[in-house]
């Protein structure tokens, strides 16, 4: 918001957010009761939402965008439609049609090329389903479960905390409600996050909450896990959950420099830091190199520390490692999104505040895109630290670590528990290997603890997989010695960029929807060639039989070069057929006309957005279209290399 008049309007809203942000900081610093902090955070979120809504309302509107027209185009040309539409459809479920499927495939191919190939990553294709113990160890089962209730008449489901919140907020806003009841409602809303199943059930009963749609009674609360449990195996007794595909980049937790960071450090990103959010400030355009150097993008969430200057002092003097790797991937994410057609002016990176940080992340930024629905999160980029590997090691006993070569060998002190295999074997029989593996994986502090217990009482009870095993002095020996090592073992941190393909696709539709100047009924999608569903159309001027050999020649040439294309020899004017191909975002069109019959044979090549046309020899046309489609040349370069075709195109959608 650069307009001084607009900033004057926003000033009191920004001041209100900052006031509440300062209160939250103060409460946390002074160790205030958790309930007081939650109340303050809830109020902060409310004020932030009011500020953002006001910012969006005052922002210059995109006069050329009409969501209804866009959705009409997308459904009419079957980019997507609601699943089972002829049966009434299912809310929130959509099917991609031919154009949508092609766009999605091209988007994923561009993603693979940009990240997997350029970063020399290794791709794995894993099972769609994950056993419950895996997700339980990572925290997804316990931390991503919600309570639901059902309408006993219709079976309609409602998320319980949302239902209670909506009902109580409506009740509190009613002028007839007493002040005491209003305060009670507000208090319950603040406490909702920490409420148990029974607590919420009591609220339903006390306030006589019914289905908001029918007024019917509701069932008792039931647990619903956001990971969508399904059943695996013939017995159906093994629970699974669905998973996502993401980038998992492993790095040294003590050295998060990236060898290619210099190549992106000058990249400017619109960063909406946690600190700015709490201070009521706008997002700022910052070079990623500066953001990393200042500690804004760091090993831990520094955004909502008490004083920003103090953060930098802590960052420099405590020697925190600059998180170049997280910064590198944020810059690469932006480059990719712009490549596939996201409008840079409608893209920002918002840092998670400490109260919303995922359980595994030590810093996280969301790439958000501005749409007619507001800012929506499309890509998450999190530093997950070593959480996953540590948790899965604890759950399985399998050491998930990496070895890092040392610049110079070093001598280390080793303390280990060496089992007496014959005694352990006689004592534990079939479980002997379990005990031996347990002893081999022990950390030094646990070995010392066992040694102390054996010395004092002669025994130590080890709990392995919920089973107790009594260890005695004759079963093991604790050895202390020095060892020269050339490598060190580390548990890597994980930087995880996670892409929501469906959300990116929707943002692409909005950011690339266009209407022809002078003819608002003629709408089209201006998708970049790299992701456009089809790259080229081949249009014979008429049904003249003499055109067919040239159409066939050109189609075969495009196919040999892996250029997707569509031959449209239907009836209708060339202008009408151009309009049809524009609607499905075909970036280039070749017209076979009567001049093509003359030697040397040539045809016109049209560019979708400018509607400019050039005349190109038929034998090189396929390679020119290929180079245009995959970014090896530009339309400006093609226009300078070949003669322009000046015939005016009728832009009326006849």
Automatic annotation (TrEMBL):
An example Gene Ontology CC term for this record: mitochondrion
Residues covered by the WHEP-TRS domain: 9-65
rRNA-binding among keywords: no
CDD domains named among the record's database cross-references: GlyRS_anticodon (cd00858), GlyRS_RNA (cd00935)
GO BP: mitochondrial glycyl-tRNA aminoacylation
Assembly notes: Homodimer.
Protein name: Glycine--tRNA ligase
């Amino acid at each position: 918001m650069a307009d001084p008049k607009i900033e004057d309007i926003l000033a009191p809203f920004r001041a209100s957010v900052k006031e509440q942000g300062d209160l939250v900081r103060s409460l946390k610093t002074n160790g205030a009761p958790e309930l007081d902090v939650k109340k303050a955070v809830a109020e902060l979120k409310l004020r932030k939402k009011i500020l953002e809504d006001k910012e969006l309302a005052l922002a210059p509107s995109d006069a050329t965008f009409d969501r209804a027209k866009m959705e009409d185009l997308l459904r009419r040309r079957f980019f997507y439609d609601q699943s089972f539409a002829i049966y009434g459809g299912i809310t929130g479920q959509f099917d991609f049609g031919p154009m949508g499927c092609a766009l999605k495939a091209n988007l994923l191919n561009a993603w693979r090329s940009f990240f997997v190939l350029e970063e020399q990553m290794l791709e794995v294709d894993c099972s769609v389903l994950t056993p419950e113990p895996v997700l339980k160890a990572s925290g997804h089962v316990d931390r991503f479960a919600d309570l639901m209730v059902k309408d006993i008449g219709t079976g309609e489901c409602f998320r319980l905390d949302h239902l209670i919140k909506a009902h109580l907020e409506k009740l509190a806003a009613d002028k007839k409600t007493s002040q005491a009841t209003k305060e009670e409602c507000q208090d319950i809303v603040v406490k909702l996050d920490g409420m148990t199943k029974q607590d919420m059930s009591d609220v339903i009963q006390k306030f006589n909450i019914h289905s908001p749609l029918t007024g019917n009674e509701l069932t008792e609360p039931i647990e619903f896990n956001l990971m969508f449990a399904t059943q695996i195996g013939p017995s159906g007794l093994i629970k699974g959950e669905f998973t996502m595909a993401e980038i998992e980049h492993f790095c040294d937790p003590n050295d998060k420099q990236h060898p290619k960071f210099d190549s992106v450090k000058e990249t400017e990103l619109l960063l909406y830091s946690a600190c700015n959010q709490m201070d009521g400030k706008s997002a700022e355009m910052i070079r990623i190199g500066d953001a990393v150097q200042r500690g804004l993008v760091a090993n831990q969430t520094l955004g909502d520390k008490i004083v920003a200057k103090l953060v930098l002092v802590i960052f420099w003097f405590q020697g925190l490692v600059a998180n170049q790797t997280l910064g590198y991937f944020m810059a690469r994410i932006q480059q990719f999104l712009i490549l596939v057609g996201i409008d840079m002016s409608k893209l920002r990176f918002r840092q998670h505040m400490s109260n919303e940080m995922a359980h595994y992340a030590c810093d996280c930024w969301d790439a958000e895109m501005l749409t007619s629905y507001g800012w929506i999160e499309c890509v998450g980029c999190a530093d997950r630290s070593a959480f996953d590997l540590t948790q899965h090691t604890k759950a399985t006993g399998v050491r998930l670590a990496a070895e890092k070569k040392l610049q110079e060998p070093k001598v280390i002190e080793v303390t280990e528990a060496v089992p007496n295999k014959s005694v352990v074997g006689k004592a534990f029989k079939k479980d002997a290997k379990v005990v031996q593996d347990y002893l081999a994986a022990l950390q030094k502090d646990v070995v010392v603890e066992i040694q102390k217990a054996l010395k004092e009482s002669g025994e130590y009870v080890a709990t392995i997989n919920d089973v107790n095993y009594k260890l005695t002095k004759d079963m093991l020996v604790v050895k202390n010695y020095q060892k020269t090592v050339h490598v060190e073992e580390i548990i890597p941190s994980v930087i995880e960029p996670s892409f929501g393909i469906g959300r990116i696709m929707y943002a692409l539709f909005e950011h690339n929807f266009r209407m022809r100047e002078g003819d608002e009924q003629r709408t089209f999608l201006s998708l970049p060639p790299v992701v456009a569903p089809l790259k080229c159309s081949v249009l014979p001027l008429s049904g003249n039989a003499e055109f067919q050999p040239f159409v066939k020649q050109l189609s075969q040439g495009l196919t040999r070069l892996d250029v997707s294309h569509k031959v449209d020899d239907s009836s209708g004017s060339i202008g009408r057929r151009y309009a049809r191909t524009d609607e499905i975002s075909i970036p280039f069109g070749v017209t076979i006309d009567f001049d093509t019959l003359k030697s040397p044979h040539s045809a016109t090549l049209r560019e979708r957005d400018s509607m400019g046309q050039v005349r190109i020899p038929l034998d090189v046309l396929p390679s020119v279209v290929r180079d245009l489609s995959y970014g090896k040349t530009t339309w400006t370069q093609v226009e300078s290399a070949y003669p322009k075709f000046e015939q005016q195109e009728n832009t009326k959608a006849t």
